[in-house]
User: What shape does this take?
Amino acid sequence: MKTILVLHTGGTISMSKEADGNVTTNNMNPLLNQEELVAGKVNLVVEPIFNIPSPHMTLERMLELKQRIQRAYTENVDGVVITHGTDTLEETAYFLDITLENKIPVVLTGAMRSSNEIGTDGLYNFISAVWTACSDESYGKGVLVVMNDEIHTARYVTKTHTTNVATFRTPTFGPIGMIAKERTFFASEVRPQEVCDIKKVTGEVYVIKAYAGMDGSLFDLVDNEQTDGIVIEALGAGNLPPETLPALERLLARNIPIVLVSRCSNGIAEDIYDYQGGGVNLKKMGIIFSRGLNGPKARIRLIVGLNSGKNSSELIDFLSE
Assistant: This one.
């Protein structure tokens, strides 16, 4: 019988709907005592590490989760399940994905409906995550996200709807597997990536979204000694209005790394267009194209890269991977 460490962090999966319709945090997580659902099949070791809404999640708390999982490597644990609020679940999952070695399955899940709502999805998602963490097929696939019968990689999954139970999707590539009758079925392999075992998460990295008619004002606001990096969610395949270029050149001259992703929900950022503000021009300036990540995940990747002590060349390779 396998042993699964369950780390509860809070979120909608642990909340309840009140008489006025508002959803609020409970003093005690209703999932704390669900061991009987897998009795005789799985040994659950349950720890309520946090009890917070996911907008309260921070990089420091993500690092605490990482360190707790690393301690579990020596505790005869076969896998880890993390319950998490959905607003920032993808960011926590991706942080763990690029900072943890692939030693045991790590699976995140959550819920779109609170624990006492009609049609609540939390308990079902939780049990599905447990079966995924128990599966021998889950080894070596990095951190996984299990929601609504689907298995996604932390690298590409994202929340796509504010309330729908099928909110978590993997644009462009799709899920890598599914859950059916307590079994996992994987249809895709996961591309290996570099892992950075960082000990700190310092640094100020900002995400700025591009729009029609944009000038350099927002970039000038973050052109200061406190800024360690910038992520731009650019237009289309990776383009910007020409009025932004002088401000970007000033930032690059101060060796502030600038990472570019697309603001589109599908596809990858590429240097295709050769005009003023086009991707070809931006790449020649020294802006780093991150292929396939969204803005929040590119921010996490840049922070992890900076805290791993990479030099400029290594940082470019890491962010372009």
Notes: The two ends are 38 Å apart (CA to CA).
